[in-house]
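User: Can you fold this complex?
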Amino acid sequence: MTEALLSVRDLRTWFHTDQGVAKAVDGVSFDVHPGETLGIVGESGCGKTVTSLSILQLLPQPPAKIEAGSSIRFAGDELVGIGEKRMRALRGNEIAMIFQEPMSSLNPVYTIGDQIGEALRLHRRMDRKAARAEAIRLLAEVGIPEPDRRVDEYPHQLSGGMRQRVMIAMSLSCEPKLLIADEPTTALDVTIQAQILELLAALRVKHSMAVLLITHDLGVVAEVCDRVVVMYAGQVVETGTVFEIFSDPRHPYTRGLLDSLPSVDDPGQRLVSIPGTVPNPTGWPAGCRFRDRCARAGEGCEAPQELVALAGEGRAARCWRAES
Amino acid sequence: MSGAATTLEGRAPGARRGLPGGRPLAALFPGLPHVLGGRWGTGAMALLTWVGMLWIVLRRWDRVVAAPGGAWDEKLAVATLAASLVASWGWSWRSVGRAHEVRLVGVSQWELAVTAFAKNRTAVAGLIVIVGLYLIALVTPLISPHDPNVQYDLQTMRLVGMSASHPLGTDHFARDVLSRLLYGARISLTIGFVAVGISVTIGTLVGAIAGFFGGLVDGVIMRFVDMVIAFPQLVLLITIIAIFEPSIFLIVTVLGLTLWPGTARIVRGEVLSLREREFVQAAEALGYPKRRIILRHLIPNALAPVIVAATLGIGNTIVLEAGLSFLGLGVQPPTASWGTMVSVGRDYLLDAWWLATFPGLAIVFTVLSFNLVGDGLRDALDPRLRS
Amino acid sequence: MSAATGRSPIDRAAAPLLSVRDLKMHFPVRKGTFGRVTGHVKAVDGVSFDLWRGETLGLVGESGCGKSTTGRAILRLLEPTSGSVRFDGQDVAALDREGLRALRRRMQIVFQDPFGSLNPRMSVGAMLEEALKVHGLGGPNRRDRAVELLERVGLRAEHVDRYPHEFSGGQRQRLGIARALSVEPDFLVLDEPVSALDVSVQAQVVNLLEDLQRELGLTYLFIAHDLALVEHVSDRVAVMYLGRIVEVADGGDLYRAPRHPYTKALLSAVPRPDPAGREQRKRIVLEGDVPSPSNPPSGCPFHPRCPSPAKDERCRSVLPAMEGGEFGHSAACHHPDFPFE
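Assistant: Here's the predicted assembly.
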């Protein structure tokens, strides 16, 4: 395999609050290779969003703190502790990010042309006229009809899907090597979601970007990802190719997630549910963090679980039973 | 990152917290065990009240004895004295005796707000000052060293600086400044409290009606509110006070009747957004009567910003009253109020600095305390700021 | 399907429990100081369906299609502009205040937002006891009944003194269900009851709803945007687009052989948890956005986005009617079943 574009090692992002230390991300490691789509999947509170915000160091510090020993390497350079100034040069330039709620990520008082243009003038030092022309070209590229008219509109004049396209256009403005997409289609309807996923897939190939897709939707993961990282309670519990994860899940949590999906092709069966709720990050359970909710919990689960390497490149699961 | 998950796993055993000193110490110094045990806010309030009231009993026993047969303000003062002594001692005794259980579940939003407020040290300090000021205002007839309106020898006692018999000096009519300051507190604090009380009551009712019924009712009410707001308040006040004889009653009424539109707007906005909330729709779907929906579901949820606005409003009203009195439109001489005292003191600023300085400081401290408490309440009552 | 879920068969020869005919809900758009009406948002524009006792009808569609408004208009949480709603033979629109209150014991609603649907200042016990008190239910000891309701929805007796903020999303949804059940209704409008929940918790709540339906003989109108979920819980499914129902069918039929081009596109757009088949699967990606319901297109409301090659002049000018039998598979399309991919 090629050398990783982004390499996260033992990332621990803790929140130091009055109520105690919330270990939102607690020892997460994964690689993103050039040009691939890696999905981080998990339920709310599993730490997937904190992971993505940690990469760009967009979390308020304090209360958040990327603990000593954590490492985030991007294109060979260490990002932890490089300082705000160098991080700013990287954000939006080498690494771009799009969010779930495109309305709140766009500034309502500027036209979309101004906002795309701002990124271009800042990072690519274009003049006003060139930036406008480039903004129109980008809007056309992300499939916005009549881009020369839309460029002068304000965010509230666009639909949710259009706004997400504008966010994608903005993120493309500096030809990033890595695009972090945090629940990019969660707020959208299925037909619009299909449009945006198709657009992202096409742009990824065209610009040879890597995409880090953060989502809770296993369907979306199955449609677009090459490899998958499953997170639970601040840890990676399983990694593998999308085919391995969906056809042969080795961690009971991954299996539970897949089983709890109602299937279009096989209706009428009673849904399999995972009992209980996600534990609180201020006090993860001792031993295996999934033990309380696991149907197979028993002897051997009292110890903290390590990732067990399995057959296959980068395949692992955090369960001592994973090999069987 | 919500605390929900920890509270799910059964009823957590109540953590018991004893207080140092226990009942023996609480009997002698109510509140001291609480201060030592970390509950310094309520503890300090009880302790200060107890010590202060005891001081009055010991040093002003003659007045305390005479007060029940005196004027109404003396009766009120002695009643306050007795009530404060009983309350601070009784509260301390009871709460020390009860093993204090820290509940982890079944804690309402109001209780959470109190807990959050108690953690805000500056706000608690502000609250202690405010409670102290109101208590002092109530017991003023018992503690004031002189009659505020008695003029001493104008030849020798006029504009004399600080001394043992006149701790804050005397004014241009040879009256005791400290006594006038104490009596002035009664006027200023009462005006603030009553005027805001009137305006909050009117504002809440008007705002809730406008917000709940909407449509034409809302349109008419809110246009009227706009009119009241658009009318320059100071001009209105000055006009009304110029037409009628200035009196405390008139000032309170006019302030109360002009300040309510702010509250009305807040409450209307809250009620409008609450009406769209699903729990209100659920109440409708369950067939609850309108009155129940307004009283049980809408008003309790619209109250938080009103409480904050009212607290900040008392401070503003005190400043407003001081301003009016400063202009000669407020409380009329010889009655002491902080505003009139500053107004008079202005003429003697270079010769007798104490005349304007102490009432000025009193206004600043009081308003500052109200603002601190208001800010503290805002933070404590805002569920978004509480994780 | 009834075999798998253990549900008793639905007697469709009997009179329907709920019968909705040509329901319309138009919201006036007001402008200016005097609230001049400048137009109407036609949120629901002629919806008709029947619902039999013990049945679950799924109502699916994208945001803004009018599915939630339909649910609220049926319960008269909104006053419908026109059309009729008959519940167990009674005309809901004609009821006076007392009649409506009595009806609301029989029709209840469960909301989407587990954070907004509970009064934050009321304890769970107070909330449930209030509903019992208003309707004179629960006998002398309402608290026991409240505890019983909590246990019924999978919570515990000790939860009765807690406040909504002390529960997780899934538990709050259970509380919303307990509140709806407190008045012993026959019919529940479930308005996106699990959309805000995590996948694993979704399954818990869906299973609870199915258990309750079986045990209490409830009738559901299940409103959701998640097609797989709707198919799982529903006996029949109605697809809505721009305020109208465009297709109704038994769940399985709709998913196996959709007739309306919108349904086809909607089904093909659902991401499936099956990466192996993703290369082969044909996807219909619709162009553009849903038009504004204040100014719907002429003719078939779907025609500007319709990918069907059979689209013709009639689609642009004539509103298609629902074609098909009463219990059969009907669609509102001039060219149903036209094959395309």
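Chain C touches chain B at residues 35, 72, 75, 77, 100-102, 104-105, 107-109, 111-113, 116-123, 130-131, 134-135, 158, 161-163, 165-168, 171, 176, 179-180, 182-183 (CB under 8 Å). Chain C has one domain: 17-250+321-327.
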